C-alpha cells in the first residue's frame, strides 16, 4: 500500500492498478436504496487517530427480515459491537471520518474464534426501511444468483468491492487451513491470530485490496455466491465458503437467476488460468493427504496456510502458503504421492489490508 497526503488526513490506498471503474462508484455516497458491493461499516469503528471501513457485501434474509452481510471485523468491530449500532454507506473512510447516511443496524456477528468455533468471519446488520435495494443488486455484478456454489479449484470467480471495484480471477486452493492476523482496534490495539479450516483462496495480486473485506465472491459464469471475502495478502485473497456462512448465520441469500459477470476488458486482466479439468477423485485424494499432514506442515515457522489446488499441468497439488522473511525449513516436493506447490507471500491479514484507514 501507499499513502497519499490530502488536507487533514492520510488516505491509505492500494498500490494495485485500477480495474473497471477503479472502485470510484463503490466509494461514493448513493441515494437510497443503496446497492451492495459498496463502501460501508460501523460508525463506531474508529479511534482518536483513525477510522476504518470495509464493504457491504450482499443482501440476505433471516426470519422474514432483510440484512446486509459483511464481515465481523467490518460490522462488529472485531467482536466489540452491540446490537443496534449504526452501519453507514459509504464507510467513514469515504466521508472524511464524518458519519454519512445510516442504512442498517448491527445485529449479529459470528465469534472470531476460527476452527474452534464458527470458522467464519461474518456478520449481519438489519436493513433500515427503504435504505437498501430490495433485489440485492451488487454494483457491476447485478442481482446475484439465488443458488449457492460449492468452491472448486480453478473455478472462475468475481467480486465487487469498495476499493478495487469489479475484479475477476480463479480459485487457487480449496479446503485451505489458514492462520489470519487480526487487530483488536481500528489502527491499533492488540494483534492476535485466528486459525480457519476449509477456506477458499484466490491467488492474484490484483483480485482485492484494503477495503474490499466483506465483498461477496461469486462464480464468474453464473454469479452464484461462493465465498465471503475477509482477509488476504499482497498476492492472495481468502474467503469463507459461502455455504458455511449461510449455515452459521442461518440466512438465505436474496437473488435471482444465474447469469454471467462481465469479466471483460480491464476486469478480465485479473483473471488467473482456468481449470484444466483436474478430476474430483484427484482433488479428494489430495485433500485426504493434506489432512493427514496439515498439522506437521502448519508447525513449520513460515507456513501460514495449506490447501488443495492444481498446478499448470492440471494435476492436483497440495498448496503450501509461506510467509516471506520467516524460516521456511524443509517442505518436500511430494507428500503421500501428491506434489506440493509453494506460494510465497506476506502475512495473511484481516487488518491493515482488509480495513482501509484514514488518519
Explain how this protein is built.
There is one protein chain. This protein is mainly beta. It has a domain of 112 residues: Thrombin, subunit H. It contains 4 helices and 21 strands. The chain has a 9-stranded antiparallel beta sheet with strand order 16-5-6-9-8-7-3-4-21. It has a 6-stranded antiparallel barrel with strand order 10-11-12-15-14-13. It has a two-stranded antiparallel ribbon with strand order 1-2.
Here the CATH topology of the domain at 25-136 equals Thrombin, subunit H
Structural class: mainly beta
What is the CATH architecture term of the domain at 25-136? Beta Barrel
Helix content: under 10%
Amino-to-carboxy terminus distance? 15 Å
Q: Tell me the strand order in the biggest sheet.
A: 16-5-6-9-8-7-3-4-21
**Could you give a short account of the major beta sheet?**
9 strands, antiparallel
Mean pLDDT: 88
User: What is the C-alpha radius of gyration, as a whole number of Å?
Assistant: 19 Å
The total count of helices amounts to 4
Which features does this protein show?
359 residues, Thrombin, subunit H, globular, disordered N terminus, disordered C terminus
Please specify the SSE layout and strand pairing.
Elements: E1 2-6, E2 9-13, H1 24-27, E3 38-42, E4 51-56, E5 58-62, E6 65-70, H2 72-75, E7 86-89, E8 101-109, E9 123-127, E10 156-161, E11 165-185, E12 188-203, E13 216-219, E14 225-232, E15 236-241, H3 242-249, E16 252-253, H4 280-298, E17 303-310, E18 316-323, E19 334-335, E20 338-345, E21 356-358
Parallel strand pairs: 18-20
Antiparallel strand pairs: 1-2, 3-4, 3-7, 4-21, 5-6, 5-16, 6-9, 7-8, 8-9, 10-11, 10-13, 11-12, 11-17, 12-15, 13-14, 14-15, 17-18, 19-20
Amino acid at each position: 500500500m501507499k499513502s497519499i497526503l490530502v488536507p487533514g488526513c492520510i488516505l491509505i490506498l492500494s498500490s494495485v492498478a485500477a480495474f473497471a471503474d477503479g472502485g470510484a462508484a463503490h466509494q461514493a455516497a448513493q441515494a437510497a436504496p443503496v446497492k451492495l458491493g459498496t463502501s460501508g461499516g460501523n460508525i463506531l469503528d474508529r479511534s482518536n487517530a483513525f477510522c476504518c471501513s470495509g464493504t457491504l457485501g450482499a443482501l440476505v434474509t433471516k426470519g422474514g427480515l432483510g440484512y446486509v452481510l459483511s464481515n465481523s471485523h467490518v460490522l462488529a468491530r472485531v467482536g466489540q459491537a452491540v446490537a443496534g449500532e449504526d452501519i453507514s454507506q459509504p464507510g467513514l473512510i469515504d466521508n472524511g471520518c464524518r458519519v454519512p447516511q445510516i442504512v442498517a443496524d448491527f445485529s449479529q456477528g459470528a465469534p472470531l474464534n476460527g476452527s474452534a468455533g464458527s470458522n467464519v468471519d461474518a456478520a449481519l446488520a438489519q436493513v433500515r426501511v427503504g435504505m437498501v435495494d430490495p433485489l440485492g443488486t451488487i454494483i457491476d455484478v447485478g442481482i446475484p444468483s439465488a443458488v449457492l456454489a460449492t468452491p472448486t479449484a480453478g473455478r472462475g470467480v468475481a467480486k465487487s468491492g469498495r476499493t478495487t471495484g469489479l475484479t475477476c480471477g480463479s480459485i487457487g486452493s480449496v479446503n485451505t487451513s489458514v492462520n489470519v492476523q487480526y487487530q483488536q482496534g481500528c489502527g491499533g490495539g492488540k494483534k492476535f491470530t485466528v486459525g480457519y479450516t476449509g477456506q477458499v483462496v484466490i491467488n492474484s495480486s490484483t483480485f482485492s485490496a484494503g477495503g474490499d473485506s466483506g465483498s461477496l465472491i461469486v462464480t464468474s459464469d453464473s454469479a452464484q455466491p461462493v465465498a465471503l471475502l475477509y482477509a488476504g495478502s499482497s498476492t492472495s485473497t481468502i474467503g469463507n465458503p459461502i455455504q458455511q456462512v449461510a449455515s452459521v448465520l442461518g440466512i438465505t441469500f436474496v437473488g435471482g437467476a444465474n447469469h454471467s459477470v462481465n469479466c471483460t476488458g480491464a476486469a478480465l486482466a485479473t483473471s488467473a488460468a482456468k481449470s484444466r479439468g483436474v478430476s474430483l477423485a484427484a482433488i479428494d485424494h489430495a485433500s485426504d493427504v493434506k489432512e493427514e499432514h496439515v498439522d506437521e506442515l502448519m508447525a513449520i515457522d513460515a507456513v501460514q496456510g495449506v490447501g488443495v489446488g492444481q498446478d499448470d499441468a492440471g494435476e492436483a497439488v497440495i498448496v503450501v502458503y509461506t510467509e516471506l522473511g520467516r524460516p521456511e525449513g524443509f517442505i518436500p516436493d511430494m507428500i503421500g504421492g501428491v506434489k506440493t506447490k509453494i506460494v510465497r507471500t506476506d502475512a495473511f491479514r484481516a487488518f491493515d489490508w482488509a480495513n482501509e484507514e484514514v488518519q
